Amino acid sequence: MPNQNTNPIHIHDTLSREKRRFEPIDPANVRIYVCGPTVYDLAHIGNARPIVVFDVMVRLLRLVYGADHVTYVRNVTDIDDKINARAHERGITIRDLTNDTLNVFHSDIEALNALPPDIEPRATEYILPMQDMIQVLIDKGNAYEKDGHVLFNVPSMSEYGKLSRRKRDELIAGARVEVAPYKKDPADFVLWKPSDPAKGEPGWDSPWGYGRPGWHIECSAMSRAHLGEVFDIHGGGLDLIFPHHENEIAQSRCAHDAPTMANYWMHNGYLMAEGEKMSKSLGNFYTVNELLQEFPGEAIRLLLLKTHYRQPLDFTKDGLVEAKRELDKLYRALQVFDEASARMPEFSERAAKDNHIDEKFIDYLCNDLNTPQAIADLHMMANTAFHNDKGSDEGLILMAHELRQSGDLLGLLKMNPEDWFKWLPAGAAEGLSDDDIDAKIAARTEARKNKDFAASDTTRDELQAAGIVLEDGPSGTTWRRG
Ligand SMILES: [Zn+2]
Fold first, then answer.
1. Which one in 112, 165, 441, 460 has a CA-CA gap of 20 to 30 Å to 13?
2. Closest CA to 174 of 119, 238, 243
3. What is the pLDDT of residue 179?
4. What is the domain-level CATH number for residue 409?
């Protein structure tokens, strides 16, 4: 059952173009499907946006309905013509290419604090369910076979185009391909196509010959396998509305004789970089992997969440510098709060077991995932560390838990503040290593003990010159890269 302390979630549903109250089919098993990566190349920052947005959505659902009452499926597309071409180019097998790419994808998005989905199905492991669904569509008269291809017949579905609100002539123009001779209607799309083993194309035996599935049928088959014929939320980027999601709906609804595929369709907006569409020739094509060499993952994540998910987002390096600075402030506040915790460890430990997230904070996220407002609220919490009368240690300790738990719902503030301030870009000029710094601090502490203040000051100056800021506190000396 939903957590009684929260107001209902409202979601903007692309299908109805309305913000609607979220009512799951079964509150004991809230089901969400998000289209995952096609694993032929490194994830770019545009790919990361839906990952981070839906990660926050899933965190919210888990908070409201209970972690064990949410099923999050995000697939991996590991059959695709771009994959075949890339594997051929690199002279490696398709399996090696997709495995390598998927491994890097996992470590990149883990650095952005994206939690793994409950289930991550790979298309190549669902060929039989796809074939079964294709056969059902043929039997029902929604699909036909021609020259080793199986096509979905668009005019057979009267409500086709409802999600993207495209008219028939737009649909045909949208197909943007020369109409293949095997198509009955120009808008028909591929469910199955022949493969040529001589060209290294992957393939499977089927009633329609040796071949491989089209992209859209993958998601219809994998979502049904794990979430059933009708589920709660289907998510992805705006660019997937047409044709991908329109086609998923056509396949699933016709195969299942269902009035809908998912009750809520959520789409995140477009992402630009440095004011323009990302492109390798403009030099604004940012892969997550490259950005992580220069910035901490949380700064990237914060920048992605500072814009509401349905708005277009202009992702810039200046924005990242600013996001890093904002996180510095939040971590400074945590340090202040943690000093209070160090003074009252037992109180802090007891308090850590309670829920400290403010209702207002949750309400912001329940309101169609209003992350900009939630982030502004984090800053308000942090301000209490620097400004007001500071209050009692108890008050500061409770604020530490509130800031951490609220941050956690956004996937932020997961580091220990000391480590945050020691973070260095991978390509940074060589300076003192963490061990060097620790050794110098130990020597300085020893000098101070022996009242050798000249030596102690010299060490401090040396460290300062190397950009290291020392802070002497009640529990010893800590340092950060300034
Ligand atoms: Zn999909």
1. 112
2. 243
3. 74
4. 1.20.120
Same domain, 477 and 387: no
Number of domains in the chain: 3
Residue 433, class by beta-carbon neighbours within 10 Å (0-12 exposed, 13-18 middle, 19+ buried)?
A: exposed
Burial (CB < 10 A; 0-12, 13-18, 19+), residue 17, is: exposed
How many whole angstroms from 102 Cα to the centroid of ligand 1?
17
Structure tokens at 322: 């600013």
Distance 98 CA to ligand 1 centre (A): 17
Q: Report which secondary-structure segment, H or E, holds 455.
A: helix 453-465
CATH number at residue 108: 3.40.50.620
* Strand-pair partners of 32: 72, 233
Domain boundary among 268, 285, 305: 268
Query: Cα(19) to centroid of ligand 1, in Å?
Result: 22
The two three-digit tokens of residue 64, written as one number: 């409201």
pLDDT tens, residue by residue, 257-293: 999 999 999 999 999 999 999 998 998 999 999 999 9
Contact 45, 8 (CB under 8 A): no
C-alpha of residue 143 to centroid of ligand 1, in Å = 19
For residue 282, being part of any structural domain is answered with no
Number of H helices, E strands in the chain: 17, 14
User: 68 C-alpha to center of ligand 1: Å?
Assistant: 24
Same domain (yes/no): 65, 155: yes
Residues 234 and 141 grouped into a single domain:
yes
463, 470 contact by CB (below 8 A)? yes
Place of tokens 């908070």: 63
* Ligand 1 mean position, distance from CA 244 (Å): 6
467 CA distance to ligand 1 middle (Å): 48
Looking at the fold, whether 49 and 79 belong to one and the same domain comes out as: yes
Range of the domain at 393: 317-422
Same domain, 261 and 325: no
Question: What residues contact 408, with CB distance under 8 A and at least 6 apart?
Answer: 59, 414
CA of 412 to the centre of ligand 1 (A): 28
Helix %, strand %, coil % of the chain (to 5)? 50, 15, 35
Categorize the per-residue pLDDT at 40 as very low, low, confident or very high, splitting at 50, 70 and 90.
very high
Same domain, 106 and 183: yes
Residue 301 forms part of a structural domain: no
Q: CB–CB of 411/301 below 8 Å?
A: yes
The verdict on residue 261 lying in a domain is yes
DSSP letter at 76 equals B
Q: Is residue 324 part of a domain?
A: yes
Q: Encode pLDDT of 341-377 as tens digits.
A: 999 999 999 999 999 999 999 999 999 999 999 999 9
